[in-house]
Amino acid sequence: MAAIWTRPISCEILHQLHEGTAVRQLGIEFTEVGDDFIAARVPVDARTKQPYGLLHGGVSVVLAETLGSCGAAFTCPDGHRAVGLDINANHLKGATQGWVTGVTRPVHIGRSTQVWHIDLRNEAGELTCVSRITMSVLAPR
Question: Which part of the chain is the Thioesterase domain (predicted)?
């Protein structure tokens, strides 16, 4: 399979892109970029837990949106940008420690919209959340 990316992409590039953002504050780390996917993980710690000791559902959505948005941004035509239109998440299992890892892959890469699917799993490989994000592709101004 040929890579889907329209510009250079790597974990290092993605880390640099997120300096000084919520992604960095939450401890999200990009772990792998493949020909058609991006993976990242978030720690389950004091920054990311809700009062019952579980990974906050909103943090799961931040991880999912980060992954889907990065995927869309790096598959857009030159000069175009992608912005979120809609995201949903189904929280299937709680995580109380360790790391939760997300992997995103495209469902649809079109001229004006993109749809990305994101699976989040705990360290045991159990599915904790499934998410889907729809992105709008905007032409240069």
Answer: 52-129
Whether the CB-CB separation of 63 and 102 falls below 8 Å is answered with yes
pTM assigned to the model: 0.97
Give strand pairing partners of 112: none
If phi > 0 it is left, if psi is from -120 to 50 it is alpha, else beta; for residue 2 that is beta
Point out the catalytic residue in the list 12, 29, 32, 65. Answer: 65
Other CB atoms closer than 10 Å to residue 129's CB: what's the count? 25
Q: Is the dihedral of CA 120, 24, 138, 111 positive or negative?
A: negative
Helix-then-strand count for the chain, H and E: 3, 6
Residue listed under structure tokens 């993976």: 39
- The span from the CA of 90 to the CA of 68, in Å, is 15
The token pair that represents 35 in the structure block: 């020909």
Domain 11-138's class?
Answer: alpha beta
User: Tokens in use for 36?
Assistant: 């058609």
* Cβ atoms 131, 75 nearer than 8 A: no
Tens of pLDDT, residues 40-75: 999 999 999 999 999 999 999 999 999 999 999 999
